[in-house]
Amino acid sequence: MNILLSFAGDKTDMVEYFKKAVGNTGKVFANDYALKYALTQADGYFIISHECNNDYISVLTDYCKKNNISAIIPLSDFDLPVLSKNKQKLKSIGITATVSDEEAVEICIDRWKTYLFLKSINVNHPKSYIDLESVKKDINEKTLTFPLIMKPRIASKKFMEIYIETLEELELFYRKLKQNISKTSNFNEDKNIIIQENISGDEYAICLLNDLQGNFVTAVSLKKLQASNIKTYIAPIVDNKPFENLLKLFSSELKFISCIEINLCLNQAEDIIVTEINARFGKDYTFWQFAGTDFPKQIVDWLTGKPVSLENIYPVIGVKGSKDGVLPVIFNC
Predict the structure, then answer these.
(1) What CATH architecture does domain 2-99 belong to?
(2) What is the 3-state secondary structure (H, E, C) of 16-28?
(3) Sequence-ordered list of residues with C-beta below 8 angstroms from that of 261, at least 6 positions apart, any chain
(4) Residues forming beta bridges with residue 248, ordered by sequence position
(5) Which residues of the chain fall short of a pLDDT of 50?
(6) Overall fold of domain 202-331
């Protein structure tokens, strides 16, 4: 079968994994807003013009028909909402989009909705605000303390996150960030920034896998030993047991399709605090592939009518990986 990896970005590793999963039975295509190395490693690619955003589904379906593509697998947040909205339309012409329903997608890509969702299911989360005056009020009343994290409400803009330590920085960077994102945000100009308390503790990432009907299959975890806000550099694979109840809750409440990746902290009191949810393969997936999982192969198997294979879904606990943006390395200490 032929598949399309939409908005492949810099995920050359994912292109390689899916090419291996498809093997000689098909081809892997990719797209993005600009030509990137990952696209050149696919069997074919096309560039999405910003001018064609309103006609994206038409452009996408035309390309899929031309290349006999029967499945679309999103690798970024950019087209998740439009793919989710048009999932049934795509299915009617023989194209399966492995994307969750609209509500689940919105919860993951809108950080404010993420906060409200976590609050509604009684999961610990950073205290969050979308109103600057409320932040200043709580700081003055000493119910909120610095440092704080300021970020765009849209989760895909991780590179814009700002660490805030004073009231002066809060005012200054709020105005600056508002200017930077207001032209591209889908939200009201005054509500496109989220401000959160800074959570300290051991950081983890967990990738959950549901089948194409939204049923829980497995989850894999890692501990971030060295990481920035946009990338993990060194991480060992760890056991899921401390998080098992949380993971099953997420699977049943979101009813997502394929993969989601959750970022969380374990603080000194060993409270689990969820900080972010991605409604697709995250950048940390490579570490689990290092350790023996093959979710791309499992998804391709499902798309071709095959059952779950245990070889695809379980990593080797304790494997430690390093990723520097050039070459991934596996090592054990």
Answers:
(1) 3-Layer(aba) Sandwich (3.40)
(2) HHHHHHHHHHCCE
(3) 205, 206, 207, 208, 277, 278, 280, 281, 282, 284, 285
(4) none
(5) 326-327, 333
(6) D-amino Acid Aminotransferase; Chain A, domain 1 (3.30.470)
